[in-house]
Amino acid sequence: MKQWDNYWQNQAVAAVNEPQLQRALARFWRQRTQHFDKVIYAVDVASGHGDVIRHIDRPQWHWAATDLASIPAQQHAITLAGIDAAQQPFSSGQFDLVVSQFGLEYADVAAALQEALRIGRPNATILALLHHTDSIISQQARIDVMDVQHFANSKVASLIEALIEEMGVVVTEADFAALEQRHSLQALGQQLDVALSALRKQISAGLFRLVLAGIERVLNEQMAQPVSVRLELWRAGVQDLQLFRERNQHQLSAALTAADLQRICHGLSADNLHIEHGLLQSEEGLVAHWLQLTKIEPKHL
Q1: What is the pLDDT of residues 153-167, one digit of tens each?
Q2: Which CATH number is associated with domain 2-135+255-295?
């Protein structure tokens, strides 16, 4: 879970940042929950940053938020970290609404949905968005995985470390002037130029800008810092890229096909359960599967 702990603890923005996607997600959650006209008890499972709670925008509700990762405390919600989606720490029949956005698929989906049904009251609604293998989010994840792999396969990371060590600490103008005369440093710089030129053709413009910003920081902005500090700073950035790749790989492995969702729904079929599912679209294309379960209160004769 390190890749997700790192993400949730260090990101201060929504998990899905593209404005059009955010609008599509917010519209979905508000439309699907607008019929709740009173104060209810609700839980956001695999909550992350609490995007769903913000989208629904009902702070007067009694909210809980759980996640297996080490998530930050959510506003307007009792927040519990280290909680498996399929093993919620709540008594049966506690919630009127159970929601989840891009979270249940990282667990055993069927078990997580059964658990959501357990903690839901009679007539409760369970509403989830699930990653689709062909969504625009999954398409971008595949690009991101390949981009980071290209970076890892390049010589850029090792060349930056060699340059940091070769430069040493640069404090005065005399120090800087001396560097310009060192042939070994010039040779490393030329190798870096070649490596960056090749990398630029392989990866997205966004990631390339991020790499250049990291290089600028450790070679220029921080040149007065000790070599060990700059090496640690660079290596931390490279590690963040690796964790970014691992998160995207995890997302792609968790994403569901239409057939996957059909099998899950078939396994949930019961007389006291109404099941609906479909596809969420945005202006850019397919966003996700949506799934809604409604517990039907048994009629007593």
Answers
A1: 999 999 999 999 988
A2: 3.40.50.150
